[in-house]
Amino acid sequence: MRNVKSFVADNIVTLIFLTITIIAIPFSGLSGSYIISNLIDRFARSSFLVFALILPIMAGMGINFAMVLGATAGQIGLIFAVDHNIMGTEGLILATLVGIPLSVGLGWFSGQVLNRARGREMVTGFILGYFMDGIYQFFGLYIMGWLIPIRTAQVMQIDGGGVRNTLALESVRGGLDKIVSLKVGPFSIPVVTFAVIAVLCLFIIWFRRTKLGQDMRAIGQEQGISHAAGINVDRTRILAIVISTVLACIGQIIYLQNLGNMFTYTSQRQAGYYAAAAILVGGATVSKASIKNVFIGVFLVHALYITTPLAGKALFKSAMVGQYMSDFINYGIIASALVLHAWKNKRAADLARAGLRMSAEAQAAAGGVA
Amino acid sequence: MSSIKTFITDFGWPRIIIALFLLSLFVAAPIVGVDLGASIGDVLNRFGQNAIMVLALVPMVQSGCGLNFGLPIGILAGLLGSTITMQLGLTGLTGLLVAILITIVFGVIFGYLYGKLLNNVKGEEMTIAMYVGFSAVMLFSILWLVLPFNKADLVMGYAGEGLRRSIALEDYWGKLLNNFGQFSIGGTPIPTGLLLFVGLCVFFVYVFMRTRTGTAMTAVGSNPDFARASGVSVERMRTVSTVVSTVLGGIGILAYQQSFGWVQVYDAPLFMAFPAVSALLIGGASVTKASMVNVVLGTFLFQGILTMTPSVINNVLKNELSEVIRIIVTNGMIIYALTRKTKVAK
Amino acid sequence: MSTGTRLLSLHGISKEFYGNVVLEDISFDLDRGQIIGLVGENGAGKTTLMRILFGMPVIAETGGFNGTIELDGQPVAFKTPFDALDAGIGMVHQEFSLIPGFSTTENIALNRESLKPNFACDIFGKRMSVLDRVTMRERAVKAIHTLGVKLDPDMLVSEMPVGHKQFTEIAREIDRKNVKLLVLDEPTAVLTETEAEVLLSSMRALAAQGISIIFISHRLHEITKVADKIVVLRDGKIVKDVPVAGVSVQDIAAWMVGRDVKTKAAHLSVCKDSVYLNVEHLWVDMPGETVRDVSFQVMEGEIFGIGGLAGQGKLGIANGVMGLFPAGGQVTVGGQDVTLNNPHAALNSDIAFVSEDRRGVGLLLDESLEWNIAFTAMQAKRQHLIPVLGGLFSVRDEKSMKALALEYIESLEIRCTGPRQRAKELSGGNQQKICLAKAFALKPKLLFVSEPTRGIDVGAKAIVLETLRAYNRDYGMTIVMISSELEELRSICHRVAIVDEGKIAGILPPTADVAQFGLLMSGLGAGKNGDAA
Which pTM value belongs to this model? Predict the structure, then answer.
């Protein structure tokens, strides 16, 4: 009984939203195969982005909302690829080659900012994302088109200045997914994409075993003690953010090549919201995250996104209710996961004091130290 | 010379840059053909519109709860107050007063629950406040659709399902405060009533911070151990600060609505905390200390930039640049405050 | 067991902090494989000496030190702890520096893990090597074996009992390749008797293998059991440097506190016959100053002193009564029970407290003197307030606060630019006076004052003590004074209690022989919770 209780307590967020999904499925009126094929598709395009959150959590920096900067770098890469008319897989490779150095720089910048905001990394990262939106818009609307010429007319705004708000990615669409596509029953599986995700998993497993990974685990638990032992805490934190940002860049490219369409100035923001919700509903907390959390989380959060709007529409006879319900769930996942974790922190701190007190009490009652 | 240096270090380069930037916009305005009088009137209007929401942040900063990114919770109380009053068909001064009353009731309830939540969590309280605020706005979005509003000018379409996105206040108490005692200086209309109302609220908070409770609250934010040793309940003070903040947030949106002329529901309150936080910080506040001067100065500077930048730059360059500047200034200011080493003398 | 070769030589080490001489002409030698027991009261200079040896940055930041240190015949002067570590000196502090989610093995090897390099290292650097966990485990097992203890190399530190954590710390130090000298600072403080025994045998085992040990402890019987030679520090000087043979714990205790100076008979007020404060079986959970079972009585009008070594619990008593830390037991003041765990209740029982943590608990550093002095009276006793609207609410009376501040600025001779000056700008001594003023402003009948003269200059010290004496004499205020400085307690208190291991070891009159105080502090001497004279 104890084990069941503690299992529920440890995984309460996942269980709550799993229950909501299970209830929503019949109401949504969707067939099992529709849901599954959608899930496969969404998993293929979204999971890479979620993996990007693991390292900063390990390093004790919470949810790296600043991964949005990496997504931005990926989008800039894609703009170049489309603008220079490099098609298919080559286009994606170009986008990656442009995006990665940019993400390294942006990641380094984020790391510096976050190091100056210890204890408030998450809210600072969140605002940093908004801040970079402004810089990115300035870049897209004023630098592109003026300092950096745009070659392709379809990429430009109607009045000629800067990159347009919606960019069709037809030229590179499916550049990764369609390299090898396997048909299993009614489902179509993008093999190379999954292979890339598998390589990423292997990378993360390997990384955990390295000295750098060990250092990150150390500073994630105790910054002061790690510092006293000689670990360069600041630098390790920056490296965690840099790697996270680079992974976000690649992840966004994978995401967009699947969608085939990019909202130039807003697609990158989705990256942060959905990835955070996914990893948290998968059972991660702001101090602990594993590959298992990513897998469970991506499937569950997308099952929620697929089923709940329609379930809400069916229940309340209103599509708008369904949509708001979906938004509420998205924010609610993050809010409840954050609250539960912080509440547990406080309880642990209070209990630790009670523990000491109980032993002191017992000792006093027994007449003194043994 | 060194006192000027200390002033600059304390006040911070970003704020000085912003103040100078605004000054240059005022200077440039007549040169590029912008009506300075109308601009100033505009700035005063927006000042009055937003000041109370900025004021709402002060109690929680002083009590050590940080920047209140959960301001939307207070705004929702205000939306409940105004929509319910309109549903009851009350107009004019009566309507406004009843709206304020209902807002206070809901503000106290929401603020109390919000305070209880914050007292039971440890670590990253600001992020939690932000997401709880977001979730609440979305929950209420469902409520606006589902609650039994049925007055014709409030609801959407024929079926009367759910409130409209924007509801006109014209026939209720729109511009009531603005027009009260309004006079013009050289063609510039001054929204006297609104400014008086803002002044009243500022005065209320000023006096409140000087009461026994307000003094205790400041001590809690300055050194919670000291406060506790003096017999003050840290949790209680923090809850009081969230209640006051939430109620003021509600009143703030009421002031905003009557000046703007529209009640906006659904996801309108979602991001309203950020401009308020930024304005307070621009006025010289930090994550742990805020004063009335910060509120007034900050709101004026912030709304000044928001108003002047499009009108001046519009006559020179493209329009979107003002939007980009707004994003960079707003968020840059918050990042600056969050990354400042809090000079806690220990 | 000494092997004859000199490992460490200290010559004429001196250190001062801002004009305050903390160490004077310290010289002693340590041979290879020798264990030195380093003994001394609080403030004797042990911690500073170890900081110098270990290269802690605070030493260089405050003007460095004089004298020379020779390690293996070579002069050394470490600038950082890492230099000392590289040279073979390891130090185990009282606070654990272990990563809770790591295993014993991982903690032992922390930041010195065995690595297997790979191709990624060439591009991205050394930290891309994979950990060689097999070798790491072997190292851990070896270190544990050298210590002679039973430790599970794979257990997580967070699940370990306290004693095992201590051993893990020591194992980490001896795992270093060229460890020559180990400094152990109160290692048995958190251990049970059995665990302490095991530790002592480990120490002998390490010494037998040629590792020298500096063993700092106030448990004198342990020192005599395991040390080869004893060094006693007092007031920054070495008073004894002798081999352990034939030395008794009483001898050591006497050397530790022994002052030949006769204390002048204190002009003490007469205290009444009635018991004002009654404490029974008090326990307090204050980290680092745990109180286990304390009982004592204080007479009305008495100045009652509480002394003892650091970490033994004397600071916990007042903090517990005032509700600042979880506590239990029975406390009665003036016949009324005081509710524990409630600062407000304590203040309402006419008790005031001047905390030892001046800057942390005692002051609002960013606010003015006025605020600091009047705040507690305002909150606890509703003073210095102006009622508004017939008492519906009240606003702070700044005029009254200013008058109060001026009153104390004058009577306590607080050096400041005025009542509006911010507390953080004042010197330590003047800050302490503000804390006193804040307590006096409550007009308490019972005053707890903890470490009243810590860190303040001689002149201010005298004023503080004289003020306490005056309030006791003129207003009959009962005072409980907690201090690390025995001299201070003996100079103004009617009686002095000594706390050891969270209990009252004994209560002595100030005129008692100093050696007796020393014995009580070391956990020896007569009487549990009673007078020992």
Answer: 0.88
Closest of A265, A316, C325, C446 to residue B327, by C-alpha: A265
Q: How many domains does chain A have?
A: 1
Q: Which of C454, C452, C426, C442 is nearest to C367 (CA)?
A: C426
CA dist C106 and C172 (Å) reads 10
Do strands B166-168 and B183-185 pair parallel, antiparallel, or not at all (unpaired)? unpaired
Q: How far is CA C26 from the centre of its chain?
A: 22
Domain spans of chain B, in order of start: 52-179+190-269
Distances (CA, A) of B68 to A172, A276, A333, B55, B248: 44, 22, 21, 11, 12
Rg over CA atoms, chain B: 21
- Number of Cβ within a 10 Å radius of residue C184: 24
Cβ atoms C214, C184 nearer than 8 A: yes
> What does C5-73 look like in DSSP terms, one character per residue?
-EEEEEEEEEEEETTEEEEEEEEEEEETT-EEEEEE-TTSSHHHHHHHHHT-HHHHHTT--EEEEEETT
Complex ipTM value: 0.87
Distance of alpha carbon B124 from alpha carbon B118, whole angstroms: 10
Size of the A and C interface in Cβ pairs below 8 Å: 86
Q: Which two tokens mark A29?
A: 């009126």
Cβ-Cβ contacts under 8 Å, C361 against chain B: 223, 225-226, 229
What DSSP state is assigned to residue A67? G
Pick from B323, B317, B195: nearest CA to B259:
B195
The Cα C397–Cα B211 span in angstroms is 9
Name chain C's partners: 3 or more CB pairs within 8 A. Answer: A, B
Side chain identity, residue C84: A
Which of B127, B80, B45 is CA-nearest to residue B246? Answer: B80
Residue B247, classed as helix, strand or coil, is: helix
Which residue in B247, B268, B254, B257 sits closest to B141, CA to CA?
Answer: B268
A360/C111 touch (CB, cutoff 8 Å), yes or no:
no
Across the beta sheet with C336-337, what order do the strands follow? C336-337, C327-333, C275-284, C291-299, C503-508, C495-500, C303-307, C478-482, C446-450, C351-354
Tens place of pLDDT per residue across chain B (346 aa):
667 777 777 677 777 888 888 888 888 877 777 787 888 888 999 999 999 999 999 999 999 999 999 999 999 999 999 999 998 988 888 999 999 999 999 999 999 999 999 999 877 889 999 999 999 999 999 999 888 888 878 888 765 678 888 888 888 888 888 777 777 777 778 888 899 999 999 999 999 999 999 999 999 999 999 999 999 999 999 999 999 999 999 999 999 999 999 999 999 999 999 999 999 999 989 899 999 999 999 999 999 888 888 877 776 666 677 788 888 988 998 999 899 865 443 3
Q: How is residue A248 written in tokens?
A: 């976000």
Tell me which of A57, A207, A208, A210 to substitute to probe the interface with C (most C C-beta atoms closer than 10 Å): A210
Q: What is the CATH number of the domain that holds A357?
A: 1.10.3470
Q: Which residues of A touch C294 (CB under 8 A)?
A: none
Tokens 């309109």: give the residue. B86
For residue B159, what are the contacts with CB-CB under 8 A and spacing of at least 6?
none
- Report the DSSP pairing between strands B188-190 and B183-185: antiparallel
Give the residue numbers spanning the domain of A150: 2-369
What is the rounded distance in angstroms from the CA atom of residue C277 to the CA atom of residue A28? Answer: 72
Residue A195 C-alpha, separation from nearest chain C C-alpha, in angstroms: 21
Structure letter (DSSP) for residue B269: G
**Which residue on chain C is closest to A58 by alpha carbon?**
C101
Rounded to whole angstroms, how far apart are CA atoms A168 and A178?
18
Residue at C348: amino acid letter: N
DSSP string, C187-230: TTTT--HHHHHHHHHHHHHHHHTT-EEEEE-S-HHHHHHH-SEE
Measured CA to CA, the distance from residue B337 to residue B331 in angstroms comes to 10
How far apart CA A219 and CA A227 sit, in angstroms, is 8
